[in-house]
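TICKET: design request
STATUS: open
ATTACHED STRUCTURE:
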């Protein structure tokens, strides 16, 4: 199953749509690759374009996980 997502920033800037894929759960025993991440932009270092921006997402995608669990602290907390 495919999905398409369009992101909109708080300043109403709209980004190009991205297409993703959903996978269904296996019907029998199988290995599943779980990708876990959290606070990837810690203290702003992860989003700094001078340091390469947020490179972790391309690394995560290259691993081709079945499930991604991303924990992020709420803004302002």
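STATUS: resolved
RESOLUTION: sequence designed for all positions
ATTACHED SEQUENCE:
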């Amino acid at each position: 199953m495919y999905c398409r997502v369009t992101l909109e920033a708080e300043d109403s800037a709209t980004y190009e749509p991205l297409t993703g894929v959903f996978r269904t759960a296996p019907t029998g025993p199988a290995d599943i690759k779980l990708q876990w991440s959290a606070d990837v932009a810690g203290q702003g270092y992860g989003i700094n374009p001078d340091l390469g921006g947020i490179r972790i997402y391309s690394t995560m995608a290259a691993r081709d996980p079945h499930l991604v669990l991303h924990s992020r602290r709420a803004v302002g907390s």
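CLOSING REMARK: The first strand starts at residue 2 and ends at 5. Strands lie at 2-5, 18-21, 34-38, 67-71.
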